[in-house]
Write a structure and sequence with these properties.
9 strands, 5-stranded mixed sheet
Length: 605
């Protein structure tokens, strides 16, 4: 099951046997190769395909990088910890304000800190600088998928496989979040690409180049997100060994030397953090974070088994629609090397993810290429030309409904929040829905390959329309940026370096990141004491207490008890997307007493 009809030879060894198997597949009734469209003739080559994938990735991942505020809660937790590394020059211990953040290894923080420094900025760099590693890693993931797919098929099919990765909704989301998952995704794909080549070659000697790449990417995945990379990659290795009843091929990765290299890469920081925290990091990261997610749903993210399977129909869009079309042909070719590798990659890790109690949509993102590979090969073999009508209708619905839903939400959502829709955003999403309907119509009329350009246009319209316009225009949900902007407007408080802030009842990490590390989360009583504090040491400082309405009564009672007269100088309301609660936050300063001058005018003392 491979695309070699464009005279491009597969990179793996054993070509004679595989070519014979491909010929049998092409000649079978269920596998009639489709005539390539013009765009695939132009871009389905080893030079032009990566160029097209780079342009597609930029169009899909760049919109919104500058305009979408930090998305609570994970992203600002990572960026704030990186900011504190830059502020303190401590690149070993990971902290969120005064609290140790012993959940993930240091890799992503180092990448974010390096990105900020390479832009020529410091800790106060804008959010887009912290997001650079994620968008770059997402682009690398797309190009690495092309390289991975080339082990099994020609450049035209590899272009499709990488395109599905670029188009997937979850990849676009993670490309815009300054956290671990995009970088982890890139490391896993690189390691799996090296592993696929070693497995296909089935060598009787060590392949030092591929082995170096495999173990380096594996080490990178550990430094970024601990055991997730080794789990996915390790289960793939075990699955391949079990399915082929052979393990000798793995020596091509140079396992002894590779393992030593792996340990050399990961051990320095792990030793340093052990010393710096007296082993506490491992207790927290493994004993609480990892095992806590396995045993029970952390932070309200528990869900029953098969939740991930259902979520994939949305987060992997548009791939599931094409998978439905391609499934009969994939099943027919189930013994091919490509399908064998995809099954060994997908099935064991998917079972583990389903059994883990805590479930978040991005957990299964490392499995996306395992589905994209056989689907791309099946499309090149004519999937959809003879598919049953009801399957084509299922695929058409899966293609069109998400785009139509987003187009409707672009109009209705802002009204529900009490704001006007973004005109360019709403128009772009409506155009994207039209392209999605065209793609669905094309799926109903024959080979699904011909629907690919239209669905690419849908994804581009959605990316630019939603991330560039619709999302940023939903101002009620961006509470933290509006809080900071409101404080900037308070007389005497525009200079953040001269501003001291505490917050009660509104604890989102995005507010800490945007306002500054010195921002404190305190009780209502401590907020009153903060405003009443003696300012003799710094009389020019601006002191603000941000009090959420649910804590306001307690704050005012505490202020009255200590003789403080607070003054609400600004109010900010909105919708906290974490939990869906309405928030109403008062910005309080200490009231300045006034006197009446001889001319009758009030003057501040």
């Amino acid at each position: 099951m491979s695309d070699t009809r464009d005279d491009q030879k597969p990179e793996a060894a054993g070509e004679a046997a595989e070519n014979s198997e491909r010929k049998d597949n092409v000649d079978s009734p269920s596998a009639a190769p489709v005539r390539k469209p013009v765009w695939l003739h132009i871009f389905g080559h080893d030079i032009t395909a990566p160029f097209l994938l780079l342009l597609l990735s930029l169009a899909l991942f760049v919109p919104g990088q500058w305009t979408v505020p930090p998305l609570d809660r994970d992203e600002p937790r990572f960026t704030q910890a990186t900011k504190q590394m830059l502020e303190t020059n401590d690149y070993i211990d990971i902290r969120f304000q005064d609290q140790a953040r012993h959940k993930k290894p240091v890799g992503i923080y180092w990448l974010q800190a390096a990105a900020v420094k390479l832009t020529g900025q410091g800790a106060e760099a804008p959010l887009w600088a912290y997001r650079l590693p994620s968008v770059i890693a997402s682009i690398i993931s797309v190009l690495a998928t092309f390289w991975l797919a080339r082990a099994f098929m020609g450049p035209a099919g590899a272009l499709l496989a990488a395109g599905f990765v670029a188009l997937a909704i979850i990849v676009g989301v993670e490309a815009r979040l300054a956290k671990t998952d995009a970088a982890l995704f890139a490391m896993i794909i690189i390691a799996q690409g090296a592993l696929a080549r070693v497995w296909l070659k089935d060598p009787d000697k060590r392949l030092w180049g591929l082995g170096f790449l495999f173990w380096t990417a594996l080490a990178g995945s550990v430094l970024i997100k601990g055991p997730v990379g080794p789990m996915v990659i390790g289960l793939t290795v075990v699955g391949l060994m079990a399915m082929k009843r052979k393990a000798a091929w793995f020596k091509g990765t140079a396992p002894i030397a590779g393992l030593l290299w792996f340990v050399l890469l990961v051990s320095p920081w792990f030793v340093a953090i052990w010393i710096a925290t007296d082993g506490t990091f491992f207790t927290e990261a493994i004993g609480k974070d990892l095992l806590g997610k396995v045993g029970q749903g952390q932070e309200g993210h528990g869900a029953p088994p098969l939740t991930h399977l259902g979520a994939m129909f949305g987060i992997f869009w548009p791939l599931p629609a094409f998978f439905v079309i391609a499934l009969p042909l994939i099943w027919h070719e189930r013994k091919s090397p490509l399908v064998t590798f995809a099954v060994a990659w997908f099935v064991p890790s998917w079972i583990v993810f389903e059994l883990v109690a805590t479930k978040l949509p991005h957990y299964t993102m490392p499995l996306l290429p395992a589905l994209a590979l056989p689907v791309a090969a099946a499309l090149m073999e004519g999937a959809g030309a003879t598919t049953r009508t009801w399957l084509r209708w299922v695929a058409a619905v899966l293609l069109a409904v998400p785009a139509l839903g987003l187009a409707v939400a672009a109009f209705a959502g802002p009204f529900a929040l009490g704001v006007w829709p973004s005109p360019p955003g709403a128009v772009l999403l409506a155009v994207g829905a039209v392209f999605a309907i065209a793609a669905a119509s094309r799926v109903l009329r024959g080979p699904a390959l011909y629907a690919f350009p239209a669905i690419c246009l849908t994804a581009i319209c959605v990316s630019i329309g939603f991330w560039g316009f619709v999302g940023p225009a939903l101002t009620p949900i961006w509470v933290s940026p509006r809080l900071v902007a409101a404080m900037d407007e308070i007389p005497g408080c525009a200079d953040k370096s001269n501003r001291l802030v505490v917050t009660t009842g509104f604890h989102e990490p995005s507010f800490i990141f945007l306002e500054g590390t010195t921002t404190k989360i305190v009780s209502a009583q401590d907020a009153a004491a903060f405003l009443a504090a003696d300012e003799a040491a710094n009389p020019a400082s601006c002191r603000i207490a941000a009090i959420e309405s649910r804590e306001e009564a307690a704050f005012l009672a505490a202020a009255q008890e200590i003789g403080l007269v607070p003054e609400a100088v600004k109010r900010v309301d909105g919708l906290n997307i974490n939990g869906g609660d309405d928030v109403d936050i008062g910005l309080y300063e200490k009231s300045v007493p006034t006197t009446v001058s001889e001319d009758g005018n009030e003057q501040q003392q």
